[in-house]
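User: Hi! I have a protein structure encoded as tokens and I'd like to know what sequence might fold into it. I'm fairly new to this, so please keep things simple.
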């Protein structure tokens, strides 16, 4: 029966290993699934909350801005209320009648008309300008007082083209740069026409300049993390506030996917890529003022909490998996303990130790198998003792005797090689020889079976030839011609090593070279091993004497190697193995062994 190579497949795994793998996968898989699903739900919930929170926050900011604009509009309403409107009309008529050079009385009237609006108490008002019909304008700077601007004409102002003099209500013009000041800041302008009582005649215009500083104060503490950008746009899409790389007064340039069409929608919140980085872009549009609040926030800062949960989840999965593996190992080894004891007993049985320990008193499957094997081992032991034991012991004694003849001869040659290398000063080579010798005798000592695979035997042979190579150097040339599938065949250990040793000793050609070929072929059910040298050959008469020695079983010291090989073949294989020696004078020698091809 051919032997097949044992493969490390799942079917060949120990039961304990299978249980460990199964339990570990089940428990760690459950832990991982629960962890991943929980994290997935948590991260989605957090993302939804973040996407809801940011619009709610900027919506609240937008409502504050609506209040700010409402306060500015309240100034215009206050101006139209009695008795304020009467004072303003009188002051405008007085100023218009005096021309560009105004007397002190006009200055006082204009100043009082504005002061009665209580704008000094309104921090969001930067200044108020009263434009006369023909003479000029009076500018009142909050906290600093007023000044007459004789060269100012409302028709030359940027907002005049949008004024409908028939419309009695205030007109909102958005962000404009303030003139006639040292710092020239941007302000938010609202213009209210001042009409004659009971008619549509325009006496002048009241311009309220709202300070944008209130917006800066309102958004000063807003911080969603570094690189966060926040913008406030007026109803003309001009920037009123910018926390980022934009300037106040610039026109919005369709950034972050928010063009004019998108900005006309009530609100929007979505993730977009900005310079390859994921950002949350959220904005809201005020239905009262038309102002827009835009927030651009890097997603990584919004997801800091989520990332922490992710790493904690990962750590929990790793810890849970580790605990699961340890628990699986303990459980599997506990469940298979008796099976492993049974396997150890079977290994002893393989070594012809038929004294199995008393089986545990259990009625489960393992206990029944153990009892059955114990009974079978006892019957086999009796049978071997009665029928085969004497013959087996006799053959084993003879084989061990032959092996003991091989070992001293090989050891003597090996030590001679190492002594020669050491004496010649080749310490590196001597060290390699000692390592090789140790490997060789480790193989010979540890090997506890007569039959070994050809692959293992060739590993031993190559170590042996490596040591001989250290001795002979380039003088020794080795060629291998071995069928790959034949390496799985089993044969007696150290079977053809004496043949190789003889070839090295007697295989030198007239030029001093030793050329040896080891040829191993596996064909059908036969393994053929040939050791070929190109030495001086064996004369016919001497070859006949060698065969006589092999048949008789006795010979001189020079034939011990061949005799040992021949006798081991006969003891192990009987008539199923053959040995051939073919030699021609000056043409070398071929020693061939033919034995059954035994593959596991």
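Assistant: Happy to help. Inverse folding works backwards from shape to sequence: for each of the 600 positions I chose a residue that suits the local structure. Here it is:
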């Amino acid at each position: 029966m051919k032997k097949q190579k044992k493969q490390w497949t799942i079917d060949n795994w120990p039961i304990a290993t299978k249980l460990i793998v199964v339990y570990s996968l089940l428990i760690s898989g459950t832990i991982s699934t629960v962890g991943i699903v929980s994290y997935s739900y948590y991260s989605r919930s957090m993302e939804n909350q973040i996407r809801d929170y940011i619009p709610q926050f900027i919506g609240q900011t937008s409502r504050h801005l609506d209040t700010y604009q409402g306060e500015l509009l309240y100034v215009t309403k206050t101006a139209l209320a009695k008795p304020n409107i009467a004072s303003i009309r009188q002051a405008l008529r007085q100023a218009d009648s005096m021309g560009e050079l105004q007397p002190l009385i006009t200055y006082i009237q204009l100043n009082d008309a504005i002061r009665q609006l209580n704008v000094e108490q309104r921090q969001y008002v930067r200044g108020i300008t009263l434009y006369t019909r023909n003479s000029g304008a009076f500018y009142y700077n909050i906290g600093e007082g007023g000044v007459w601007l004789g060269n100012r004409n409302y028709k030359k102002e940027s907002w005049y083209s949008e004024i409908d003099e028939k419309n009695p209500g205030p007109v909102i013009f958005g962000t404009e740069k303030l003139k006639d000041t040292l710092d020239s800041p941007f302000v938010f302008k609202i213009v209210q026409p001042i009409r004659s009582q009971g008619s549509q005649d325009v006496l002048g215009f009241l311009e309220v300049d709202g300070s944008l500083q209130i917006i800066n104060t309102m958004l000063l503490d807003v911080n969603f993390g570094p690189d966060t950008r926040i913008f406030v746009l007026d109803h003309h899409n001009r920037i009123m506030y910018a926390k980022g790389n934009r300037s106040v007064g610039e026109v919005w340039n369709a950034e972050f996917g928010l063009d004019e069409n998108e900005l006309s929608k009530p609100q929007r919140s979505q993730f977009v890529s900005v310079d390859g980085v994921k950002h949350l872009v959220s904005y809201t549009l005020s239905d009262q003022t038309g102002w827009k609040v835009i927030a651009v926030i890097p997603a990584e800062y919004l997801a800091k909490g989520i990332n922490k949960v992710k790493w904690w989840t990962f750590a929990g999965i790793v810890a849970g998996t580790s605990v699961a593996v340890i628990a699986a190992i303990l459980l599997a080894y506990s469940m298979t303990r008796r099976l492993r004891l049974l396997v150890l007993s079977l290994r002893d049985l393989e070594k012809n130790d038929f004294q199995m320990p008393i089986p545990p008193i259990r009625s489960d499957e393992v206990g029944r198998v153990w009892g059955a094997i114990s009974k079978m081992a006892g019957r086999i032991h009796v049978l071997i003792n009665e029928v085969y034991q004497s013959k087996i012991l006799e053959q084993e004694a003879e084989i061990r005797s032959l092996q003991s003849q091989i070992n001293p001869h090989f050891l003597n040659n090996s030590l001679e090689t190492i002594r020669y290398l050491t004496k010649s000063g080749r310490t590196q080579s001597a060290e390699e020889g000692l390592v090789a010798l140790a490997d060789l005798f480790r193989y010979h000592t540890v090997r506890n079976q007569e039959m070994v695979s050809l692959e293992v035997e060739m590993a031993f042979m190559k170590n042996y030839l490596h040591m001989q190579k250290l001795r002979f150097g380039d003088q020794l040339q080795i060629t291998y011609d071995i069928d790959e599938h034949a390496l799985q065949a089993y044969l007696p250990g150290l079977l053809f090593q004496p043949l190789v040793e003889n070839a090295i000793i007697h295989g030198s050609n007239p030029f001093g070279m030793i050329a040896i070929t080891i040829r191993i072929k596996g064909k059908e059910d036969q393994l053929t091993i040939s050791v070929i040298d190109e030495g001086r050959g064996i004369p016919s008469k001497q070859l006949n004497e060698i065969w006589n020695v092999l048949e008789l079983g006795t010979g001189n010291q020079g034939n011990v190697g061949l005799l040992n090989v021949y006798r081991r073949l006969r003891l192990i294989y009987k008539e199923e193995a053959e040995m051939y020696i073919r030699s021609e004078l000056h043409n070398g020698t071929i020693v061939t062994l033919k034995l059954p091809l035994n593959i596991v």
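A useful reference point when you look it over: The chain has a mean pLDDT of 78. Feel free to ask if any position seems puzzling.
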